[in-house]
Amino acid sequence: MNADARSAEVPARESETTVEVRCTGHVRTEVGAPKLEFTFEGETLREFLDAFFAEYDVKDLLLAETEAEASTSGWAEPPEDLPDSWRKNPEGEQTRTYARVTVGGEFNEHLAGLDTRLADGDRVGLMYPFIYCC
User: The whole model's pTM is what?
Assistant: First the structure.
């Protein structure tokens, strides 16, 4: 049997990635720790989140299913010419109002969204702050 035939028979093993997860606010409360190491199969933020949410029930704290859950009315009108790039993830891949997912300290939508590639040792932040009103 040649090498091509063998590789067709044996399914390729999914790569494993280990990241450092930092949790704040309500996510920290639900996870029970401010930081932890997490190993998952794959190498994208989407694969990380799927695996993390399977182990920790915090998806509803972080991800919005609709545009209404992902936005809130602002207090001031935005200027006509916004500085830098102002991108949003597509509907269904956005974070809830006030929640954030970061990779290496950058908001995921400023990278490649949920398709952002992760490497061993990357730091993923899962943030949903405590918000108090007067």
Answer: 0.78
Provide the H-helix boundaries in 1-134: 3-9, 25-31, 45-55, 59-62, 67-70
The residues near 48 (Cβ < 8 Å, ≥ 6 apart) are 17, 19, 38, 40, 42, 118, 124
Percent of the chain with pLDDT over 70: 77
Per-residue pLDDT, averaged over 95-106, amounts to: 91
Angle at the Cα of 20 (from 39 to 38), degrees rounded to 5?
20
Alpha-carbon gap, residue 24 to 40, rounded angstroms? 21
Q: Which of 103, 128, 131 is nearest to 44 (CA)?
A: 103
Which residues are within 8 A (CB) of 59 and not within 5 positions of it... i.e. 6 or more apart?
49, 53
Q: Is the pLDDT of residue 97 over 50?
A: yes
